[in-house]
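Record type: monomer structure entry
Structure origin: computed from sequence
Chain ID: A
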Amino acid sequence: MSEQIINREPCTAIVLAGGKSNRMGTDKALLPIGGTTLIETIINQIKDLFSEIIISASEKGKYEFLNYRVITDERQGEGPLVAILSCIRASKNRINFVTACDTPDMNINFIKKLLYEGETFDIVVPKYKDGRHEALLAVYTKNIIPIIEEELQKKSRKISPIFTECKTRYVKMDNETWYKNLNTMEDYSSYIG
């Protein structure tokens, strides 16, 4: 993959920080990493790629210190699909990169590749050989808003069913040793080690 991959249109980054962090036991987005918070660590790595950054959160006040727009879910407590819908609606751009707030290391070249594919496809999602997806490290365009609405009307909270309903591009996610989630306190301790 080349460093020269450049998007022709502006894109928005959406950082999902509204989860309950049950396994971590504390708000993971605000965990300290090298003198800053986990969410700031993520934003600082990706901000130069985007014309807009949106924080998805259950409460606005907690993330105001970041000085980015905070969008709360249209329907609270219904998971990341509602959060993605709420933020894509609020986004100023057609192409939106979505990431969870618990992935401390961002691979800029990989993200550029996802964004580039987002100019042609409605969804661009990393996929492993075993069929698993990284739905919270993916590109979603505004074209999918009606599909998400239909899925939510079925009372479904899963993201993956929309992949078959949209023009979806799967990008190989093998040997991506940079990608890790900090889901538990053990994960976090090991990472800051």
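Annotation 1: Helices lie at 38-46, 80-90, 108-117, 145-153, 161-165, 185-192.
Annotation 2: The longest strand covers residues 11-16.
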